[in-house]
Design brief:
The protein has eight helices and seven strands; from the N terminus they run E-H-E-H-E-H-E-H-E-H-E-H-H-H-E. By secondary structure, it is of the alpha/beta class. The longest helix has 28 residues. The model has no long low-confidence stretch (mean pLDDT 95).
Length: 250
């Protein structure tokens, strides 16, 4: 039996790279798709058959070419959409250039991939799993996060619609909603929030870590393990679900 082939979109990033690693550790064949050079990530993956491809999520032509009816990426059994960017700031002073960038990557990019996957499945119906990265910010908004939250709320809605449409092909779509992940993106966010509030980066990180009863940040690998379950064959009874990866409330 050949290895399960999983595409990780955004796999050159800190979170995507760990997801790719966990998938490879579980014996899956991984294609890392990213605008950035992902060759180093691929070289570090255990096992064989892993490749990287250049992919821009903001390009519908790229999405259809790599993942559409005649996919240049080859036949895939799962696809993880882990691409994402962030921006923080109050509604009153929203930077509309940043708004467009966040929505273009986080939501429109996911829709590009979703359309390509739908057309691929119509041409080749099969068991296939799509995992979208949303966030706890896609379930509950907070001050200063309107742009990011809008993209992640929208992504959950898109996922639920996509899941309903692709069920006829034997395929499914789910979302993961991590809390505060110990990642470069969160640290950059903490710096921005710390500067805006005057409390500094480290105090902001401590506040993030203390937001749940865990009293710590979530490790990227903890998120990746859940993604691997959803991308694998053990989760065939789940679709249209948003899985929160976070500690309980205090």
């Amino acid at each position: 039996m050949s290895a399960r082939h999983v595409v990780v979109v955004g796999g050159a990033g800190a979170i995507g790279a760990v997801v790719a690693t966990v998938l490879a550790e579980q014996g899956m064949q991984v294609t890392v798709a990213d605008r950035a050079d992902a060759s180093e990530v691929v070289r570090g993956l255990p096992g064989r058959g892993h490749v990287s491809i250049p992919f821009d999520v903001t390009s519908i032509d790229d999405a259809l070419a790599w993942f559409g009816p005649e996919p240049r990426a080859g036949r895939y059994d799962a696809l993880v959409f882990a691409a994402g960017v962030n921006y923080t700031g109050p509604v009153a002073t929203t930077d509309w250039t940043q708004w467009k960038r966040v929505l273009d990557v986080n939501l429109r990019g996911a829709a590009h991939v979703g359309q390509a996957v739908s057309r691929n499945l119509a041409a080749d119906p099969r068991e296939c799993s799509i995992v979208y990265f949303s966030s706890t910010a896609g379930r509950r908004g907070e001050g200063g996060a309107s742009v990011y939250a809008a993209s992640k709320f929208g992504l959950i809605g898109f996922m639920e619609c996509h899941a309903s449409e692709i069920a006829r092909y034997g395929a499914r779509a789910n979302a993961v909603c991590p809390g505060n992940i110990d990642s470069p993106m969160l640290r950059a966010l903490a710096q921005q929030v710390g500067e805006r509030t005057g409390q500094g980066t480290e105090a902001t990180l401590a506040e993030f870590a203390g937001s749940t009863a865990f009293d710590r940040l979530i490790a990227i690998r903890e998120v990746a393990q859940v993604v691997a379950f959803l991308a694998g064959p053990a989760s065939t009874g789940m679709s249209g679900q948003s899985v929160v990866i976070d500690g309980p409330p205090r």
